[in-house]
Amino acid sequence: MTLTAYVNARLIDPKSKMDIPGSLLINGSLIAALGENIDIPESAEIIDCKGKVLSPGFIDMRAFSVDWEAAAAGGITTVILQPDQTTLIDNDAAVERIRARAKERATVNVIPMGTATKAMDGQEITEIGQMLESGAVAFTDCRKPVEDAQILKRLMEYASYYDALIVQFAEEQSLKADGIAHDGGIASRLGLTGIPSIAEQIQIERDARLAEHTNSRLHVALVSSREGVEAVREAKARGVKITCSIAPHYLHLNEHALEGYPTFAKVSPPFRTEEDRLALLAALADGTVDTIVSDHDPKNPDLKRLPFGQAASGVSGYETLLPLSLKPVQEGTMSLLDLIAKLTSGPASLLKLDSGHLSIGAQADLTIFDPEQPWIIKRNQLKASATNTPFDTLPVNGKVWKTIVAGHEIYSA
Known about the structure:
By secondary structure, the protein is α/β, with parallel strands linked by helices. Helix content is about 30%, strand content about 25%. The strands form four sheets. Strands 1, 2, 3, 4, 5, 16, 17 and 18 form an eight-stranded mixed sheet that branches. The longest helix is centred in the middle third of the chain and has 18 residues, at about 195-215.
């Protein structure tokens, strides 16, 4: 077995609340030792981390493309793939096919979600039990929430039998209609059809009531508004098994990002008001938000070169996940330990994965990064299959140095 020791690191493990200077020894694919003073065999390769943070590998709960080179560059060791692929992941055979293909080709761990309804048509629920056995970790119709309350109730009852996680996109469809921007003054001035924040709030409130009634687990895929955050917070206070995610681009941009109609700033849900942005930061800091996701959705450049109303929504998010997520740490409202939990132990717990932690005998899925290293996001230097980011030329802090999966270094800056 190959022995590798990462020394002079800042070991951060949110699950055990560890934040100490120390070293970590890998034996083959597993963690063999970690701590402030460990015995390192003479035969081990020594890698000096020079004070950088060594944490569990990041787990990304919301990605629409595997794009593993970009994922590795972003410190992501596990990609949770959304089910609306070229062939929908709506049955056990599709789950097995995705997992087998990823094992052959990808350097990162790839685990799919299954669809909540067949063909994502919102009419017939899928075989959750069979897909769970095949390796699916949650169930969602992606950006199409299950609208019919009776069908969602049946889905949640079925899911509760397995304690499976149902993931809903929080956008009441009749209120969304053909909207493409936040329903406010900016959209009105730009002549863009709006989506009101209440569309998010109403969807969350209804879904939370059904989760409460069925005693099932509900995860809100992305919250984008103050009203959405408050709906989640209130449901949690009632004891509902509800959790939620945010994507870091919503921590940085508001509706003013649409000035000039830049299609790289067209996202779903849309960027909202400055008040909403600040509410998201507060919800992340106070624990209302459970996980941070990249929402990685690379788009062919031709789909972004269209007029704003016709252009596709989506951002390339893997490689900017860390620096953009560090905002509350840099502003002093969160500790680095608590922030990293949203990328590691948080998603692992929700998805019942035996990962997202540093412990002896665990698979060595690790991310090593410098939270203070300055760099400039440059679209033409990203490794993603498409580089649709609204953050081109933005100076940021926080850079991934190495990404390790099962003891193998798959990325090095």
